Amino acid sequence: MQPEKVGKDVVVSLQYKLWLDDGELVEETLADEPLMYLHGHDNIIPGLERALEGMRVGETKKVVVEPKDAYGEYDPEDVEEVSRAALPPELKPEIGMVLTIVDERGRSFDAVLTDMDEDSITLDFNHPMAGERLTFEVTITGLRAPSAEELAHGHVHGPHRH
């Protein structure tokens, strides 16, 4: 059965543009590559997911999401200084580069290199959009029921494009 509006366990296709408070457009979907996600399974930021509830195909909405409902507040404790001796010798550190750090449990985290000197580098583990108020313009382009596998896994299975 074809869902009529966005709700739990509906696969939603949407086009969006995302701006930061300073007016910078930071993300935008391409016309032929909408974002697809399974609604109600925490696959997108909570503030946006709540705002899309009940929308129908063809509807457009502007949504402002505060940091706590997006990528969280900026946490100064999530910044670490690391000795250059701990880095792989082939790594040529540059400010702004993103490094993936794997902890002793095998979990991986992305960090942005924000500062460096001869002995150490500074890594910021905050999400790049932490602390930002986000403004989305969203258009719902499709709704469908999930497959049994998608529902069991809690996310959409689709063509993977890079």
- Termini distance? 31 Å
Question: What Rg do the Cα atoms give?
Answer: 19 Å
* Largest beta-sheet details: 5 strands, antiparallel
User: Which residue ranges are poorly predicted, with pLDDT under 50 across at least 5 consecutive positions?
Assistant: none
Mean pLDDT: 93
As a percent range, the share of strand residues is 35-45%
Envelope shape: elongated
Helix content: under 10%
H/E element order: EEEHEEEEEEH
* Individual helix count: 2
List the SSEs and their pairings:
Blueprint: E1 11-20, E2 25-28, E3 35-38, H1 46-52, E4 60-65, E5 79-83, E6 98-102, E7 108-116, E8 120-124, E9 134-144, H2 148-153
Antiparallel strand pairs: 1-2, 1-3, 1-9, 4-9, 5-8, 6-7, 7-8
